[in-house]
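Continuing from the previous page...

OK, I double-checked the sequence for DUF4136 domain-containing protein against my notes and this is the correct one:
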Amino acid sequence: MRRLLLYVIPLAVALASCSAYRYHTTKIQSADFSQYRTYGWLPPVDSLSKSYFDNDIAEANILETANRELEARGLTYTKNQPDLLFRYIAIVNNKKRPIYGGMGPWGMWGYHPWMWGPGWGWGWGWGWNRPVGEERYRASHIIIEAKDRRSNKVIWQARGSGEARDPERAINKLPEVVSGIMDQFPLAPAAKR
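Thanks. Re-ran it with the corrected sequence; updated structure tokens here:
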């Protein structure tokens, strides 16, 4: 039983991590974010992607969460010449990824060329070292960027990327994704300072 758990637990962790969002950010290194006090929103950028996020519910989930996160960082929303202008870009597109291993002659329980000889069991590389096909999936990217109103330059951008399995789940996950994106913003929430 313990031996089975040694194989099942890492596999479950690997599969669970496949659906998680990953976050990336970039900024102008010399920008002093502490000088900004107010913010506003630009219209979202139109995307030629699947229309998962092209609806009022998705927009509300993105804006409400981002507003809450920005206000927690000491910024105040205004329509009258804000210091920072934010906008978001939502993209869902089709991607391909290789499928590795499996049960069979080169997989988990069959002969494996990297084993110490022919036989059954796990070989070096855990039996998952060769692509056996491709699968299509939908990749979701939520990008939020901040533009300095005076210079009209984008000074910060962050992206959350993950798999969109279906529109409803992707839309319901937006608050979590936007919070993860805003964690990348150079100003920490007031409670963490």
